[in-house]
Design brief:
267 residues; alpha+beta; 9-stranded mixed β-sheet; 4-stranded antiparallel β-sheet
């Protein structure tokens, strides 16, 4: 049997610290912004005990921490990134006392529900399309909707060199509809509408899995409740973090631990 390589994957080391997600850690590594012992780290590098890892010169420290799970009603104009070079980044906007990062992205020109955490282990389990976790949106377009529009959107359209997965689409008004996706291609809803010669005028995400936006005011955030976290944990119990999502193998990682501290910014 082949022995596993010593050390820990660099992207996992960074995400385990709560600095950012694994996906964003990969981007930092690819951009040559990560060092190990003051040397530029290469993709696929592993961290050995005692080695010093830094991102943009800031040392990364992995320590035991209480997991945070936060729901934010993101305003338009805020970018879903931890990159502090972006003046409109979500971390600067939320200004949380703990280091957290967003789970996935929500377009700068979109608003609504986005989750943030310091738990790198759950990010891909929520985001990976093969796990079929729902995300719900309310969309307004520039002209009247037709039955053909809803039928074609629901059946899947070709964008970005692939065909989108079938989804639920329900007309709500003359120019508005509700859509539930189980994947998250780049600017997916806007691109799908463009294929059908529609332009998105407003887009709001109102639900991620069991977490609902509810009456949370724009720009406000709250900690997930104990019940929400427990339900989320159950929904993620069969989800996987890697490309093996299609096999739906049982994941045996420990349960999410709800954050119980009082929320000073709750709406």
């Amino acid at each position: 049997m082949k022995q596993s390589e010593p050390g820990i994957q660099l992207n996992k080391f960074i995400s385990s610290s709560g600095f950012c997600s694994r996906r964003e850690a990969d981007r930092y590594i690819e951009d040559a912004r990560v060092t190990i012992n003051d040397e530029i780290a290469m993709p696929g590098a592993r961290v050995q005990p005692g080695e010093v890892v830094a991102v943009d010169g800031e040392r990364i420290k992995v320590s035991r921490k209480q997991s945070l799970y936060i729901a934010l009603n993101k305003p338009m104009g805020i970018t879903s990134t931890t990159d502090l070079n972006d003046r409109n980044n979500i971390i600067r906007f939320i200004n949380h006392p703990k280091r957290i990062f967003p789970i996935g992205r929500l377009d700068k020109d979109s608003e609504g529900l986005i989750l943030l955490t310091n738990d790198g282990d759950i990010v891909n389990k929520i985001l990976r399309a093969g796990n079929d976790h729902e995300k719900e949106y309310i969309v307004t377009v520039n002209k009247a909707l037709t039955p053909e529009f809803a039928k074609r959107m629901a059946g899947g359209l070709r964008i970005l060199g692939t065909k989108t997965k079938p989804c639920m689409v329900r007309q709500m008004g003359h120019r508005s509809f509700r859509i539930i996706l189980t994947e998250g291609l780049n600017r997916q809803i806007r691109r799908m509408c463009e294929v059908l010669d529609y332009e998105v005028m407003s887009l709001k995400r109102v639900r991620i899995m069991n977490i609902k936006l509810g009456n949370l005011a724009v720009g406000k955030w709250r900690n997930l409740s104990f019940a929400e976290t427990e339900a989320l944990n159950k929904m993620l119990s069969d989800s996987v973090k890697t490309q093996e999502a299609s096999t739906k193998r049982k994941n045996k990682t420990s349960k999410l631990r709800p954050y119980r501290q009082a929320d000073p910014n709750r709406s």
